[in-house]
Amino acid sequence: MYSEVIAVELRARGHDALSVREMAPTLAGAPDEELLSNAVAQGRTLLTDNVRDYRPLETALLAGGGDHAGMVFTTDRQFPRGDPRTVGRLVLALDALLVHSPQLGDRSIFLR
User: Fold this and answer.
1) Which of 59, 78, 88, 90 is most deeply packed, by most CB within 10 A?
2) Domain locations in the chain?
């Protein structure tokens, strides 16, 4: 959903970040359930602006006794994908989040 540059920039700041394509090239364009399942299996926090689809998946996962390494939600209004400044703004916001809240397990964060 977002540029791979975000993961590159987060790694440059000392965070263990991967884009979906870096996790597994076959995941690009995969169904939401598959992306979440992969993130859970790899212990990765998921970043998405698809709140409508991922919140129910997260709720079902937790209700079924599963867990996850965190979910970070954004909005296209707050971080518009068509705006060239978005990548930099997202990197700064995510870096601040990870510095101040490194433990995101089973938490949902709405990034502002």
Assistant:
1) 90
2) 5-110
